[in-house]
User: Fold this.
Amino acid sequence: MKDNYPNTQGWKHAEETASGEHEPITIWDYNRDYTKLIELVHEKYPEINVQIEPYKGSNMTGYMKKQLETGRMPDIYVTTQAWDEELQKKNLVDLSKYPVSELYNQVRLNEYDVDGGIYLLPYDYVVLGIQYNKTLLEKNSIEVPMSFQ
Assistant:
């Protein structure tokens, strides 16, 4: 079976780089277009390189969980899972200490709170609800439903 996972052999932490060169910031994702992000990073921090490593396998959720369990995570990754809280505390950075967390709605951040720390940031918003035409209901003497029954 062909290995579809990014090659993580030989990864070095920034403090291991003696030459003074910046290690690239690695991002794992499902093949999204990060062109604009890379342009913005290079505009503000020209010395920083961003390396996109798209996941090509069929079970990114399982793969990412295994990487988290073994501490072999990229710098940034996109997930649909709120992982085990102990794994988050052990392997991820508490983002509540950084200004980026102030850019998010506090109610949404509370959903990701782990003992006062924020290790995952919300990615998408989904709002569920039912809309109705009030005038149409009133015109036909229909009361606004208060349940799905």
